[in-house]
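[Automated response] Your request has been received and processed.

Submitted sequence:
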Amino acid sequence: MKIALAQLNYTIGDIEGNCAKIIKSIHRAKSQQADLVIFAELAICGYPARDLLEFDSFIQDCEDVINSIAKECIGISAIVGGPSRNANPGKQLFNSAYFLSDGKISFAQHKSLIPNYDIFDEYRYFEPNDNPSTFRFNGKTIALTICEDVWYEDNNPLYLNCPLEKMKNDKADLIIHIAASPFSFEYTEKRKSILSSKAVLYNTPIISVNQVGGQTDILFDGASSVFTSNGSQVLELAKFEEDISFIDLENLPEK
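Generated structure:
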């Protein structure tokens, strides 16, 4: 399975502009015979969209654009981050990762661990997902995580459950991780360590796609990565600039 990592610079609130960039990357990935192209967390609306998320018209525009992008996913599939509505009691929205295939939304995973510390203020807007699940694609079982979801460590006082542990019995062949992970030197090195350790713990390759660019007071460094099941990093995209790269899941290099 050939997979494209699309590392882009999104603009908060520019839903149509973000959509155009995503569709352009889908067409590029399709021209390279990719089976799947992966985009970052909340790519549709930009991160952090903050109080824009409180406007129903804004969420409706996001939903409309996600459906438009889905229609481009014929002969190729995509994973795209965006907000989605919560029909149950709790916060009105989920922070979601959409799996788009065959011209429609085929699956949506909602973020489980909602950070509410330091620069993060997500719990103001998003409901945590208590029931993460895997999905099947091209004969593979895929666990889909969103940013903070891979940062759970034992005895973490902020969270009660680990999303990957809840999906462990499904025996995923691949973990796909989409993020809006900000830059700092120590944080960036810690991110690598976390992803590597999770690949080893679950004996599963991890593909992580981050965004780049400056948004309000936050800087994103990109550095999207691929780790093998032995924890080796075998691909890292450019830092602080847009990039797209391809990897063959069946022929991951070992280091």
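Summary generated for your ticket: The chain has a mean pLDDT of 95. The chain is about 20% helix and 30% strand.
If you did not submit this request, please reply to this message.
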